[in-house]
Amino acid sequence: MKESTLETYLTNQVKKYDGLSLKFTSPNVKGVPDRIVIHDGHVYFVELKAPNGRLSKMQQYMHKQFAKVGIEVFVLYDKPSVDEFIRENVASLTRNA
C-alpha cells in the first residue's frame, strides 16, 4: 500500500468522527510528521509510512524533539495501525460514543 493511500484512509476515518486530518508542512524544517489530527479538543501528530517504510534520520531526530517537549508522534504503517489509532485516540474520545 502506498503512503498516499494510507494518508487518505486516515483522513476518511478521522472525518467519520467529525475530526480534522490536516497535512502538516513546516517551511524550512524537514522531518515533521505528515498529519495533524484534531478531534474533540485533542491534537495528535501522525507520521504515515508504507508497510516497509522507514523513518529518515531527520524524521527520527524531529520525533525525538517532539518527545522532549512531551508530544508523542504516532507512526502508522498500515490500515490496522490506523484503525488502532482511531479506536484508542479518536473513537474513545467521541462525546456521543
Q: Helices, strands, pairings?
A:
Blueprint: H1 3-15, E1 20-23, E2 35-39, E3 42-48, H2 57-68, E4 73-76, H3 79-90
Parallel strand pairs: 3-4
Antiparallel strand pairs: 1-2, 2-3
Describe the structure.
The radius of gyration is 13 Å and the shape is globular. Helix 1 (3-15) runs parallel beside helix 3. Strands 1-2-3-4 form a 4-stranded mixed sheet. It has helices at residues 3-15, 57-68, 79-90, and strands spanning 20-23, 35-39, 42-48, 73-76. It is built from 3 helices and 4 strands, in the order H-E-E-E-H-E-H. The model has no long low-confidence stretch (mean pLDDT 93). The longest helix is centred in the first third of the chain and has 13 residues, at 3-15. It starts with a helix and ends in a 7-residue tail after the last helix. By secondary structure, it is an alpha+beta fold.
What is the makeup of the main sheet?
A: 4 strands, mixed
Distance N terminus to C terminus?
Answer: 31 Å
Sheet/helix structural class: alpha+beta
Low-confidence stretches: none
Quick summary of this structure?
By secondary structure, the protein is α+β, with helices and mostly antiparallel strands. The protein contains 3 helices and 4 strands, in the order αβββαβα.
